[in-house]
Design a protein that fits this description.
Length: 456
């Protein structure tokens, strides 16, 4: 495979972007400059390059738009449920089975996992933390233990898998040029290996420190964690949500709905639930409240994905969307910039599964250092495409591996400024929480990478 100037421009800016991430700087500017330079090369004019930059953003927004929509709608629903204490009612039964620190840790984690799959971790963490913190205190689980459970099950396991909303695998799959279902199915073993190793080690070290009496003198501030009162409206809203999403799951199974179709079903159901719940709560003021909740959801969605759109724009140029921006500019035998680079790599240097898996994990982890996790998944998907084509390996499994590394590091488990929400609701230091997560997460990544070497 003969590489052209466009391929070398793409490689150069991938390296620049990676270095920028290592330096903990924002990568939007180098991403946009990369598209601009490709535009200069393909269009041979300044105006054409400038137009290409904007068109690349449109392509990126088209790719990410459905993800932004479903997340915004789910957050809007969580706002509606929070306002009448329905979320609190949902988790009330779990407090009856919490008898000791072990059950507290895993019940909190599982509830956080389930809510995060449907509503995302950021809105879920405050709700679950507020309810379970005083319950955990009564059975002897320290605040840092609650924070670890919220963090690892929510921002780690739930966000890295994202089976329901499918925001994370959609970005990774889009950059890798494969189906979302391929990332999920091929990476299933890796998702659970990472979770089991990391969470088990985190709980073991926590229990070990508890036995040493490390948290004996801990005093919990209970002023901000009172359990809310429950009412009839909360009970009705809870039943409606459970029934609505249960019927969605039945429909997904019966009609084999996956990917965008499954997300659309969940999003449409959530819209009607928001309307019904707000009408029930606010009656004549419901129209204004519905609008307010949806605005809050979209503000959250844009805040999360605003920086990701221009970053993803560059990495999408490595695959099919390049023709939508620049036209039919590639050679007839080209499979896309990234695929071409992968073919050339396989022909030029000795490469194997062990090197591919190691590099995918390292790059994914480095991209997570910006504290987002999501901003690096486009690069992880792109590299997976390169390595997969070079080795004839599973692009889905490699994409999942990069996704795991990016999310577990940057999604809110290691980077202190990314895990502030869990630390704040539990009244612990973000640095202390990051330090406690460090060894379990790194151990999990090492074990998961080793497993990946043998399955890709």
């Amino acid at each position: 495979m003969v590489l052209t100037g466009a391929h070398y421009i793409y490689i150069l800016f991938m390296i620049i972007i990676l270095i920028t991430m290592i330096m903990k700087k924002d990568t939007i500017v180098p991403c946009m400059l990369g598209v601009f330079c490709l535009g200069i090369f393909f269009k041979h004019s300044l105006s054409g390059a400038i137009v290409s930059v904007f068109n690349s953003l449109i392509i990126s927004l088209n790719e990410l738009g459905p993800i932004i929509l479903i997340i915004a709608i789910m957050v809007a629903l969580s706002k509606a449920l929070e306002e009448n204490n329905s979320i609190h009612y949902m988790v009330k039964p779990f407090s009856r089975i919490i008898k000791n620190p072990t059950t507290a840790f895993f019940v909190i984690g599982i509830v956080m996992l389930l809510l995060s799959w449907f509503f995302w971790p950021t809105p879920a963490v405050a709700l679950v933390g507020a309810i379970f913190l005083p319950v955990a205190a009564e059975v002897g689980l320290p605040a840092i233990g609650v924070a670890v459970a919220l963090n690892l099950f929510g921002h780690g396991l739930a966000l890295s898998t994202d089976f329901v909303i499918q925001g994370a695998p959609s970005i990774t799959a889009g950059a890798a040029g494969i189906e979302v279902s391929q990332v999920i199915s091929d990476g299933m073993i890796l998702f659970w290996v990472m979770a089991l190793v990391t969470i088990s080690m985190a709980f073991y070290t926590l229990r070990k420190d508890m036995k040493k009496g490390l948290f004996r003198d801990e005093i919990l501030d209970k002023k901000h964690v009172r359990i809310k009162t429950f009412n009839k409206k909360a009970k009705i809203a809870t039943l409606l949500v459970i029934l609505g999403f249960f019927l969605d799951i039945v429909a997904m199974y019966k009609f084999n709905l996956k990917g965008s179709d499954a997300s659309a079903l969940l999003g449409g159901t959530a819209i009607f639930l928001i309307i019904i719940i707000d009408i029930m709560n606010y009656k004549k003021h419901s129209l204004d409240k519905i609008c307010e909740n949806i605005i809050d959801g979209f503000v959250f969605g844009i805040k999360i994905f605003g920086p990701i759109i221009p970053i993803a724009a560059f990495f999408y140029m490595g695959d099919a969307p390049v023709t939508a921006v620049f036209g039919e500019v590639l050679a007839p035998n080209s499979q896309g910039l990234l695929a071409d680079i992968g073919m050339a790599l396989s022909q030029a240097v000795p490469f194997n599964n062990f090197a591919a898996a190691s590099i995918e994990t390292i790059v994914g982890a480095i991209t997570g250092l910006d504290g987002s996790g999501f901003s690096g998944m486009a690069l992880a998907g792109s590299l997976a495409s390169v390595f997969g084509n070079a080795l004839n390996a599973s692009i889905g499994a490699l994409s999942a591996l990069g996704q795991i590394a990016a999310i577990w590091v940057g999604g809110g488990c290691l980077v202190p400024w990314a895990l502030i929400s869990a630390a704040a609701i539990c009244g612990v230091s973000p640095l202390e929480l990051a330090k406690r997560n460090l060894k379990p997460v790194i151990t999990g990544l090492i074990v998961t990478t080793i497993v990946a070497m043998f399955i890709i």
